Fold this protein.
Amino acid sequence: MGGIVGMCICNDRRWPETYRVMGLQGVELVVLGYNTPSTNSQRPEEGPQKRQFHNRLTVQAGAYQNSTWSVAVAKGGTEDGHHMIAGSMIVNPDGEIVSEAKTEDDELIFADCDLDATIFGKQTIFDFARHRRIEHYGRITSQTGIIPPVQ
């Protein structure tokens, strides 16, 4: 249908660079799949509500900051003894959830995704040609790990 579609998987959704690399290619719809347990094995007190909050936050931010649709497809139920958070959702280019699974079981969700809805954001606040200042981004591409500022 002439749209520009990007794809990522699981933990990729948590990194702004994932969306930005696709955004710089004019992506209009990002599709991602994930299998995330309801419980964080490294922090069990976190709980499924906070895990779902972080999940929504990253998908919504990625969609908004790149003026793209984001279709996040989640595993529901139990896999290898681990309960999954599920939470499939469709997010519009304004970062709003327009459709979302209601339970932690398998569900089918859908929404009309008008790819032209990405145009306004791409021509205004997220017009990368006008607003990105890559001369200030060297640290992003040259460093891994944390290096505190020199005092």
